Amino acid sequence: MIELRDVSKTVMSGSEPLTILHPLSIRIPEREFVAIVGPSGSGKSTLLGLIAGLDAPTSGAVLIDGVDITRLGEDALARLRGEKIGFVFQFFHLIPSLTAYENVAVPMEIAGVDPARARAHALLEEVGLTGRSHHYPSQLSGGEQQRVALARALANDPPIVLADEPTGNLDSANGRHILELLRAIHQKRGTTIVLVTHDRELASMADARLALRDGHVVENTLQEDADADRAAVRK
Amino acid sequence: MAVRETRASWQRLLFFFVCIAVGVAAIVTLRSVIQSVREVFGSEARGLLAADVLVTTNREWPPEARATIDRRLAEAGSTARTETIETPTMVRPTDRSKAVAKMVELRAVQPEYPLYGAVVLQGPDRYSYALLRDHGALVRPELLTALGVEVGDEITIGRAPFRIRGLIASEPGRRVGGFSLGPRVIIDYADLPSTGIISFGSRADRRLHAKVPDDRIDEVVRVLRLDFKDDFINTRSYRSTEDQIGRDFERAENYLSLVGLIIVILGGIAVSSVTRVFILQKIRSIAVLKCVGARSAQIIAVYILQVMALGLAGSLLGVLMARGVIAAIPLALGSSPSLLAQAHYGVTWSAAVQGIGIGVLVSLLFAVVPLLQVRFIKPSLLLRDETARRRRDWLTIATMIGVSAALVALTAWQAASLRVGIVVCAGFAGLAVVLHFAGRGLVALVAPLSNSRSFPLRHAVLHLSRPGNQTRVILLAVGLGAFFIVGVRSLQASLLGEFSVQVDASAPDMFLLDVQKPQVEGVRAFLGDRAHGAGEFRLIPVMRARVVGVAGRETTLDSPEAVRQSGMSIGREFTITYRDHLEANEKIVEGTFGRTASTEPEVSVERDLAVRARLHVGDTLRFDILGRQLAARITSIRDVEWRESRNGGFVFVFRPGVLDSAPQTYVAPLKGPATPADRARFQHDLVVRFPNVSVIDFHEILETIRDVMSKVTLAITVVGGLVLFSGALILVGAVAMTKFQRVYEAAVFKTLGANTRTIARMLLFEYGVLGSLAGAIGSLGAVVLTWGVSKYALEIPWRIFPGEHAAGIVLTSLLVASIGVLSSLDVLRNKPLATLRAE
Known about the structure:
The complex is a heterodimer of chains A (235) and B (839).
Chain A: E1 2-13, E2 16-28, E3 33-37, H1 44-52, E4 59-64, E5 67-68, H2 74-84, E6 85-88, H3 100-111, H4 116-126, H5 142-153, E7 160-164, H6 172-189, E8 192-196, H7 200-203, E9 208-213, E10 216-220, H8 221-234
Parallel strand pairs in A: 3-8, 3-9, 6-7, 7-8
Antiparallel strand pairs in A: 1-2, 1-4, 4-5, 9-10
Chain B: H1 2-43, H2 45-49, E1 53-57, H3 63-75, E2 80-93, E3 102-109, E4 120-121, E5 136-139, H4 141-147, E6 154-157, E7 160-170, E8 184-188, H5 192-195, E9 205-211, H6 217-227, E10 233-237, H7 238-291, H8 296-333, H9 349-371, H10 394-415, H11 418-446, H12 455-464, H13 471-504, E11 510-516, H14 520-528, E12 540-551, E13 556-557, H15 560-565, E14 573-578, E15 586-591, E16 602-606, H16 607-612, E17 620-625, E18 628-640, E19 652-654, E20 665-670, H17 676-689, E21 694-697, H18 698-751, H19 756-794, H20 802-822, H21 825-829, H22 832-838
Parallel strand pairs in B: 3-8, 5-7, 14-19, 16-18
Antiparallel strand pairs in B: 1-9, 1-10, 2-3, 2-6, 2-9, 4-7, 5-8, 6-7, 11-20, 11-21, 12-13, 12-14, 12-17, 12-20, 15-18, 16-19, 17-18
């Protein structure tokens, strides 16, 4: 489970402090597929970065399976990401000097998983790139690169996948394909998926929705779900 | 716009221009120092010669020659003259309890000496002739320790005792760093006969120093040279010395500056490489500029301005560095009495202008070709993500040719010789090509490691060949530095090893000179007496002779002058011998060697000289042997193995019969006693019995050689160190240049779960592998260098010193690994999200 307690983020813009996220608290239960939506600059990606431990909050605590990751050092965070979190970026962020297959194998190699080879090929097959495994990123289309990135995110079979505008750089057909893959992964593996998007239509494919504006939560169906659950229990 | 661009990226480019600065500093420092020193030597040329005109001979003055000299000097209005004699000889303490003897370079002087310059003594005493009168001696301080004596003690030279009355700090005419057989001892000319060391055929230089009015000097030198063109008498003036010194200095200045130029060119190569990466990074900005209407020429002009400004800044920094180094020279010399301390050191204008010119030009030349790629960047790049490939067209190729020609011209200008310019450029280009291919070969060799199971090692190896990598330039720069240092150190070890082998083997390690004919039996008995500790020995009759004419099939020279001018290396003085057998290191390759006595003069000639002077069996050589002329027919050509020449290294060997009764001295190669104490006693006892005999101890010579070589090695190691330092700067710069890739990848790896240690290990492996490759390239180059120099230049057996090479590889890889990791520390520290967002 992912839990954020009074988490805020303020950065310095020139000499002025700029608050990107005002204190917020949310809980994302296991096996949830949640979309974080909001206009550009609303703090969506920052929130995702905080959940992944890629960035540290100014205040508050981020708990993954009950562990406060804001207290962890860089190396412990890296290990946590290797074991529990897969990340998909808008701009793919594949290593240009490695082939598709090698890019997918990297997280397994870092974690010392053996045999990486068979699993990397299986993952590429799962995202429909069997024939492209020895191509370099520059030889792949945007949609294909994002599917490699998705396969890479799944390499260590993490319980959580965080996707930051994974379709933002793709045409609608490719975008839909990626989303269908995410959906399938969620259903097949029970992976918790947190998807950042500013596309409300895509967001509607998620089970729950968290809307941000100017660093404030303006809508949280997670909470409604939780309240509804609690009400059902009370009844 | 150029200013804005520079401001944005100057930090990354800095290192390359520091490299240019180091090279410029080297050029400016070397040129300035040599120019300053040259000025002193020029003004001191009279002091170096201690005369306006110097007439010298290594034989007795023939009376008629003396008469001619007297007449000519009188005609020229000479106002003063003085004579000196110089000879190597043995000196021992008069105190018999001190059983040592030492070879010295003796100079006997008259009251008027020196006409110019000064003998400077250590301590408060000033030199005056009175110190020498009545068997006084002035000696170099090192003789005191060698003999265990002090000022005031007596030493014996030949048969006569002398009292040490002072210590020589400096004297006129002593070459700086020149090779000498022993420390200097000065005595009175009038006391020389009492020593008995000068006899017929002894090695002694007789010098006549004269003061001549300035306007008559050239004339008197000219007529004396004409008078003695067929005699063995040389005449020179301080002016010819000055000219010679001037030429030597000019040559030294030009050649040494080439070292600086090589460093600058290394910087240039780095500039070229950095410009290439820079353009790659700027592709989008350039595409944007083109979108808003900028033309390629405008953009290239902006970058050229930027490069030239940085080149100028680097060169000015170089001049500043040179100033700092030069300012430190007087501090380093302190109150040294050497001529060097009298120079006024400062950066000279000509050196500074040359340095700056070269810095800016080299930066420009090396940046132009990569900058031409700007023309191929299309604005459409902004719409599609195209990978821009390097392209070549006729303009690029023409520019490359132009740049190469300009570099040759630049080098030729620095060396003041087109030939040297072409040779150095071709050599450098050849070396660069070799290093380049060696680098590629080695990178290919380690490529299989990219399948290694170790994640950091796999990625380290992959990084060596990633796009935009700096592998080749680092291998070239660092490899070149390693090559210089390992090569020179191996050569030194090789040479010293060779000498040691020669000295340590059972081969002779002592050499007696000037044994007079009547002493032969006495010396034979002395050496044969086991109590003195000498091993095997032989006594060889020798005479000093010059070739004064050749009548042959190919070569005909009818006067000593013609022989001297022939340029066939037969004009010098030779030591000749006669015998009835060949030595073990000799082989007849043509003709027959006369083994029985004959009344017909016959001579055998060494092959190399025969080839050089185009001499054949049947030709006639005319010799002047101590004033007596003798025409000898060549009856054989001999091959001499010079490496084993301790017993018989003679170019001319006569058939016995003709020379047996000629005035001659003997030399004796022998195996001396084993321990230093026994060797000292042996020399002492021998000299007590035979005061005129000189002993050369090869062990001492080896020490001298070792000393000279360690100085030369130090000098070249400093040069190699400078090159390596530039290599290190280029490395730091290359790391800075490619850091954006590393920071990005590290951010991705961190996101995927890699910890700091994994990333640090990746960096360590990458630079470790790179450093090992650079070290290996340097070592391989050094192996080739030592092989070539050993085989062709020094003609000694080729040796490999695994220790030097292993140390070269290990130290280079450590250096590169630590510099690489240290300059990448922020790669480890950066937070991943900020990096990924910026992409």
